[in-house]
Amino acid sequence: MLVIALDTSTPAVTAGLVALDDGLPRVLAERVTINPRAHGELLMPQLVDVLQEAGRGFTDVDAIVAGIGPGPFTGLRVGLATATALGQACDVPVHPVCGLDAIAAAAEVTGPLLVATDARRKETYWAAYDGATRVDGPHVAKPADVPTEGYPVAAGELAEAVGLPAVGPKYPTPAGLVAAATLDADPEPLVPMYLRRPDAQEPGERKSVLTR
Amino acid sequence: MSERIVLGIESSCDETGVGLVRLSDDGRVELLADAVASSVDEHARFGGVVPEIASRAHLTAMGPTMRRALEDSGLALSDVDAIAVTAGPGLAGALMVGVASAKAYATALNVPLFGVNHLGGHVAVDTLEHGPLPERCLALLVSGGHSQLLLVEGVGEKITEVGTTIDDAAGEAYDKVARILDLPYPGGPPIDQQAKLGDPKAIAFPRGLTGPRDARHDFSFSGLKTAVARWVETERREGREIPVPDVCASFQEAVADVLTMKAVRAAQDHDVDTLVISGGVAANSRLSGLARERCAAAGIELRVPRPRLCTDNGAMIAALGAHVLHSGAKPSPLDMPANPGLPVDTIVVQ
Ligand SMILES: [Zn+2]
Q1: What is the distance between the alpha carbons of residues A40 and A33, in angstroms, rounded to a whole number?
Q2: Ramachandran bin of A182, using left for φ above 0, alpha for ψ from -120 to 50, beta for the remaining angles
Q3: What is the pTM of this model?
Q4: CA B223 to ligand 1 center in whole angstroms
Q5: How far, in Å, CA of B225 to CA of B170, rounded?
Q6: Annotated binding site of B, which residues?
Q7: What ipTM, to 2 d.p.?
Q8: Structural domains in chain A plus CATH codes
């Protein structure tokens, strides 16, 4: 089984092609660029490079796995729009994966693990795991407010910011995304995890335009 | 080569649009499907488009809108020969959803991708309704986001700005005046409706930038909006009831008067005999009525696409994409950015 893995929920623009033999993900090619402002420009060229390096085409692909966040909004949507369109054009299922789950899967820790990524505005997206199984979250909070008691290590870009020794990757990896996906079931809908409401204010009282 | 199918994707503001057109060898373009999903209701209580709400709605709507356009046309994605997408101008986060989607569709289908100009789309859409445009014509684009006069010398090839608003767009003025009068958002339809019951000469509202020394082809609607607010507030302070139909009719008269006067003047200044009016405000009854009168008097042919095609949609982007494809333009690169400030003379991003 051949799977495209995409994630744009963090400053990393991530595209990979992963083969699943006997349930074990094997990365055939991947491209990762750290650039929080260029998800829209970089993602598709990277995916084209990945397929070329692996010597495969879109017709060889059996499924797509996409990170649904949590992530800052604009970049996150690039990966999801791309995955939706690819799924439709290639007529293959698109499986959503929580990016924090992908990081936990790639960390390969047994026992308690926290995952913390950058939510901007001096906050972190975080979730708690037992091995690769999520037991709490995802939430958004100030790093100092993340309950770390009982957790010896953390993964993700803000692992140290929550006060724990860092293990595993900073960002979701193609292998982690595929490992965390439920590929043998019908895909869940691809719903982004924003965890924040849009900033929008209802207009207040009109100001007077008359000078007195 | 024979006929080619062009798919268009639009997401610059609050409408998610997917359109399909057929391009013939001779350059004629025919509408096959036009599916639109709007998030306008979600913005109503904010009195204007909220970019993050619009962007979220685009992501949710893109897949279903694509499916609906394909169903309506009886085509499959594999029938598509080229994809056009709005690269700008528009809201950054909103544009990005359409551009990312278009890149993925085009790459997976192995067809050329054209990142095109939204404003050019508003002009190109008229060819779906009234056939090919003459070699040179003038276009008046009026909506919540734009108020522009464009000189069109080949719809897929050369478009230059003749004039623009120096402050608010015409549609923005409608929304603000509607709010002053406690009418619903968007303001265009309720003001048009009220205006039909009122006297356009009841109140003399100012005509912006129409003095002898003012820019001949530019617009200003901010002063008009303030004048309406001042008039209404004064009346309310005096304890008088606001004659809403008269205010609407007088405001609408001022907008239509300036827009049509300047459009006809620009057409004459540039020696063209065809005027296209497009954009959401083109559906306004007084604007199209007055434009018809003044164009007839000046010997100018007036073309106004049907309202459904005037508002933002994917068909207009497909139409422009088809004209660009027919002109032999190079496709856009895969690392093309969404450009919120794309200049109007960039018809296709290279
Ligand atoms: Zn528009």
Answers
A1: 12
A2: beta
A3: 0.95
A4: 23
A5: 10
A6: 118, 122, 141-145, 175, 188, 192, 284, 312
A7: 0.95
A8: 2-99+172-180 (3.30.420.40), 100-167 (3.30.420)
